From TrEMBL:
Family annotation (InterPro entries): Aminotrans_3 (IPR005814), Aminotrans_3_PPA_site (IPR049704), PyrdxlP-dep_Trfase (IPR015424), PyrdxlP-dep_Trfase_major (IPR015421), PyrdxlP-dep_Trfase_small (IPR015422)
Sorted UniProt keywords: Aminotransferase, Cytoplasm, Isomerase, Porphyrin biosynthesis, Pyridoxal phosphate, Transferase
EC number(s) per entry: 5.4.3.8
UniProt pathway: Porphyrin-containing compound metabolism; protoporphyrin-IX biosynthesis; 5-aminolevulinate from L-glutamyl-tRNA(Glu): step 2/2
Cited NCBIfam families: PRK00062.1
Reactions performed catalytically: (S)-4-amino-5-oxopentanoate = 5-aminolevulinate
Protein name from the UniProt record: glutamate-1-semialdehyde 2,1-aminomutase
Required cofactor(s): pyridoxal 5'-phosphate
GO biological process: porphyrin-containing compound biosynthetic process
Family matches, as SUPFAM superfamilies: PLP-dependent transferases (SSF53383)
Amino acid sequence: MLPGGVNSPVRAFKSVNANPVFMEHGKGAYLTDIDGNKYIDYVLSWGPLILGHANEGVIKAVTDAAMKGTSFGTPTEIETELAKLVVERVPSVEMVRMVSSGTEATMSAIRLARGYTKRNKIVKFEGSYHGHGDSLLIKAGSGVATLGLPDSPGVTPGLAADTIAVPYNDLESVKFVFEKYGAEIAAVIVEPVAGNMGVVPPIEGFLEGLREVTTQYESLLIFDEVMTGFRVDFYSAQGLYVVTPDITCLGKVIGGGLPVGAYGGKKRNYGTNCPSRLYLSSRNPIGKPGSDECRLCNTKTINTTSL
């Protein structure tokens, strides 16, 4: 019924020569499978559950919100409160748009960068995974790459031609690409700490160099902080490394396990995103009270807790 028996390649456990394990429930740092076996969950649902499974505060916030309704299709006070908290916590963000996943955040950020700069090409880094958007599945460090398979079928040559992949932590390669294509490059997208290739931190001067070269060529710098956001530092990776991007993508931790994402940046880049449909960013599920309450509770708890 399910391709490969799972809904995500990493859940198949093929890279470790094992069969999928079906879980029944989780609490704190532990998971229990359908056979009653208990596991320490070092991954915590691939990142979102920084407060652990079934955190009482998060569960209560979601339950209380669901009792009021699951979706309104209108603005809510809670999403404004959440946006304010993100703006306070992320140095680069003056305006933020909520979406339903980290993939949607990076896809929307790329579209926004292309619309703002009137350019098409994107620079990314080999082995870095930014979700399953077509233009970002070029030399991506996803679960597929773990198996040594080629890039995802279905990505068109046209999209591939507009995506330039260079080695991570290699600033000279970035400079070379800009010398050749600088007037065509809309943005550089980077994980400040590369996650899927093995948690590789930036070498000294790398992020600063990206900031300098993108500024020089009037391209945008996008930080994909879906993994690092609110995790590596109180103010995310950009706060830790003191480098300010133009656009920031968030997910995982801000959602506490529900399908969430966000992307934001400076007003000068972002003001055209709404209400104009020029750079359309609209999702039917956005503004669900339960998801927003979960985001807010998770982020507030991180804000007030020493983790």
